[in-house]
Specification:
Layout lengths: L2 H14 L24 E6 L4 E5 L5 E2 L4 H13 L20 H5 L10 H14 L3 H13 L8 H10 L1 H12 L7 H12 L2 E2 L1 H7 L1 H4 L14 H14 L5 H7 L4 E3 L4 E6 L3 E6 L10 H14 L5
Antiparallel strand pairs: 1-2, 1-7, 3-4, 5-6, 6-7
Helix pairs in contact: 1-13, 2-4, 2-11, 4-7, 4-8, 6-8, 7-8, 11-12
Bound molecules: glutamic acid (GLU).
Length: 306
């Protein structure tokens, strides 16, 4: 890697680390609160294969909603354009677990990254795969190059015991005809999918196919077409940060996706993927320091898609 990049990341990390963290841990999934709140790490992977990380970049965390990009990639791979008859591609302008717009739009979620949209994606995968839970895991293992990558039963069980809003969402969509399978089976897969654990290094490697025209960096294997990758990147830019996607585009200027575990992955097509983790979240559910670090990186490197 260009040593300039190492320096930009290192400087951004050192600049952001001492800033007072005004965020709060997500506690609505009780197990997510069992994490050291001061963890902070970042890792960048360039499309030339070089990479650089600093801080707690090798410590695993719950990637939560970041997994929604990967389930979308798998669904798009199987369904192509048909997928967009079940889910829209518009920012929701509401909270990630909101039920509000489902009534207005007849059970069609606004986009695949709000919970309702990701739940419909899980339903689609269950309809098209023999064992969606296992095949999704194998898909991510292949992308990440981590053969023993796994779901966290602890996190999944914690959410299964408390995820009443997701239960409501899934049943509501079912009542409107956009869930085809048993809601209990769909939810079970959804909670497992959200429980995947990775560290920043693994996350930035895993997402590099989206910075590389849909092809894996390691062996050039096509995962999705370049046009499909472009669409997923567009969705990350417009819908990847809950009700703060505009702010992220404004301040950071890259497509990305965050999760309530405090992880964020962002990418600059044909250049790099960057993953950051700091568990305390701002009022919109995005990592407080993660956003600050990415803003610092793109400001100093002048690398933004705009
Ligand atoms: N499993 C979480 C939920 O459904 C994911 C939320 C997120 O990371 O945005 O509430």
């Amino acid at each position: 890697m260009d040593s300039n990049y190492n320096e930009i990341i290192e400087n951004a990390y050192n600049f952001t680390k001492p800033i007072k963290d005004k965020g709060k841990l997500a506690t609505y999934i009780p197990e997510l609160a069992n994490v050291n709140p001061s963890n902070f790490g970042v890792h960048m992977t360039k499309v030339d294969g070089t990479s650089f990380g600093i801080g707690d970049h090798l410590e695993k965390f719950s990637i939560q909603s970041i997994s929604k990009v990967l389930s979308l990639a798998l669904a798009v791979k199987f369904l192509g354009e048909d997928i967009w008859t079940r889910i829209d591609v518009e920012p929701s302008g509401t909270k990630f677990d909101s039920l509000l717009l489902l009534e207005t739009y007849n059970g069609i979620p606004r986009n695949p990254f709000v919970n309702s949209g990701a739940i419909v994606i899980c339903d689609i995968l269950i309809s098209h795969l023999e064992n969606a839970r296992q095949e999704f895991l194998e898909f991510v293992r292949d992308l990440s190059g981590i053969p023993d990558l796994n779901y966290s039963d602890k996190i999944a069980d914690s959410e299964k015991a408390t995820g009443f809003r997701n239960v409501a969402l899934c049943n509501f969509i079912k009542s409107l005809g956009n869930i085809k399978n048993d809601p209990a089976v769909v939810l079970d897969f959804y909670f497992d999918m959200c429980s995947l654990e990775m560290n920043c290094q693994q996350l930035s490697h895993t997402f590099s196919f989206l910075a590389n025209g849909g092809c894996k960096l390691k062996d050039g294997k096509e995962i999705i077409t370049s046009s499909q990758a472009k669409r997923i990147n567009a969705l990350m830019l417009t819908c990847g940060f809950y009700d703060e996607s505009g702010e992220f585009a404004f301040k950071v200027g890259l497509p990305g996706k965050s999760g309530v575990g405090g992880g964020i992955v962002a990418l600059y097509p044909n250049n790099f993927t960057i993953a950051v983790w700091s568990p305390k979240l701002n009022a919109n559910g995005n990592s407080y320091k993660g956003m600050k670090l990415l803003e610092t990186v793109t400001t100093h490197s002048e690398m933004s898609i705009f």
